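Ticket #704: bound-state structure for magnesium ion.
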Amino acid sequence: MRPNDLTPLFAPVETLKGIGPRLAVLMKKALRLPPGVREPRVLDLLWHMPTGVVDRRAEPSVADAVPGAIVTLKVRVLKHKVPPRGNSKVPYRVTTEDDTGRLELVFFRAEPSFVERQLPVGEIRYVSGRAERYGDTLQMPHPDYIVPEDRRADLPLLEPVYPLTAGLTAKVVLKAVRQAVDRVPELAEWQDAAWLKQRAWPSFADSVRGVHVPGDAGDVSPSSIYWQRLAYDELLANQLALGIVRQSFKAQRGRPVRGDGRFREKIVAALPFALTNSQKAALGDIAGDMSAPHRMLRLLQGDVGSGKTVVALMAMAIAVEAGAQAALMAPTEVLARQHLETIAPLAESAGLRVGLLTGREKGRPREHLLEALKHGEIDILIGTHALFQDDVVFRDLAFAVIDEQHRFGVHQRLALQMKGGEGGANMLVMTATPIPRTLLMTHYGDLDVSKLTEKPAGRKPIVTRAVPTEAMERLIERIRIQLQEGAQVYWVCPLIESSDVSELAAAEERHAHLRQIFGEGVGLLHGGMASSEKDATMAAFARNELQILVATTVIEVGVNVPNANIMVIEHAERFGLAQLHQLRGRVGRGSRESFCMLLYAQPLGETAKQRLEMMEATEDGFLIAEKDLELRGGGEVLGARQSGLPEFRVADVPGFTTLLATARDDARLILERDPALTTARGRALRTLLYLFECDEAVRLFRAA
Ligand code: ADP
Ligand code: MG
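RESOLUTION: The complex was predicted; output attached.
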């Protein structure tokens, strides 16, 4: 049970003053909510970290106000100049003064009654905002704050700046965050006293306050003691949760599963290709795990197309050879059916019986399937979340594979495992997203990992070259030659910061340009198109009716055109390594020699240079992921977003890697000394786990 102390923090944001349903919807957009959380809660505001701070502490006289600077001025309201009706170009002006000079407050498209209410003639007001010089007058367009003398405290002298969304103003967020901060109770300390002292870290409550209600501009920085403390809290919660999961996992004995190889032999004989060495090595790891007396939990990593499915099938065959059953779970129905299509012919030629269970199987056929499963007349069951349902009962499930594991939570994994009865099922989880070791550690602890690093035979390497934009004409000449030989080209257009519109404009311009050169065979694909249009364009490219496809980054996801062999990426210096790697993965799928041309604008920054060099040097997604982590040097890591792994909300700070390693050691020590978290510190740590929503781990204490 969650401690009562925390209840106010888990209440919806609408319980805060001034936040109604409309603002709650906007907050849902602006805040990063953990997976599965649909309504923003007070707690989410605490983790809505500022990106900077506006310093309003300068309080000069009007005469001393520096144009261009943010200032807070104490002025008397002299007169209002209401703009003529119907002319929105003329602003509403209010003249104010202090003993040293005059200040004009300027409001465009203002509601006159609003301005009148805020600034009654003859009254004193504090106004805060950016002062500007306009001809001879000092003016302040749209002051951020206008407060009377007795409400002076409402004016934040140091105002944290928060990520916003259209319709959600800084003031609303600021007020809400402050209320959230006021709800933080004093909690028993969970960190080690000596460690806190060494780092000079304040209490949790003071740290939350330090970041959101700063006393100094430097407090709102990921390297401040406040932020660092919170980051460490988040990392410790994460490492502790992993430790608990692992501990409960190891506490349960597994069952050794050994096969005699008879089905595997038949599958290999039916394969139209030989297994790669990586595939064989992974299968060796898996067979070893399965035959050991503890439960298996292994991650199989391999880029898209590296051949994970065959490995899964062979591994499942081991379980069947041992007289048991196996299951393969995919995150979507489409993927589940795709697996069935790949696996069924091979499995059946080896004499294995395969079933499919998704949300779509209903009524009689479903009943039949479940009966057969219960009686062991199905050897391998492929499906979706539907496999978790209570009435899905195996005769003897010894092995389960989860594809694209990141889309499932820990508890779902456990639920499937529990269907394995006594010893629980051995588990293999698979992912196509290369996850750097550091990140793996944060999400799985010491999970066993196998990697498919080798591409299946017959695939050619992709020649990658970074060239300056000035060389585009030569590139176009080379493409002309390639096109005559039947090549097809993806041409990805510049990613322009913070504006979808200009990204599109750039793509349209390039499309027009290439059309002039190459004619009708140049297509355009962008995110603003209806999905039917997108599909039609993609299909035309796949049928080779289009030879060049100019696209914004929308092509990143799920496109397979084996004949396409050239990838051109404009302004490659603006892309992250993960994205470049994903984009490049669109080519090199067929028999043609493939190229990836990275066009960059000079001068190149140091990091961008290293990224492009890395791309030229290797196609290994794992190496690239490690490098990406190194270049970013933080918790906001490659893959986290794409892979759906939970991202850290607070811990994305300088020193991330070191803090993480310390948190891991700390967690290990804590669990060694107090495995059930029953000491005073242990109980405080449980609160920490709830705060960072690692309750799944807490629940395991009861399960164990
Ligand atoms: P993923 O790892 O993305 O799940 P798949 O398992 O779908 O990849 O395999 C991609 C393609 O490669 C499939 O058509 C599969 O039959 C083929 N394949 C798998 N292993 C090999 C191999 N050793 N040699 C050649 N082709 C292979
Ligand atoms: Mg796959």
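RESOLUTION NOTES: The pocket of magnesium ion (ligand 2) is lined by residues 308-309 (CB under 6 Å).
TICKET STATUS: resolved
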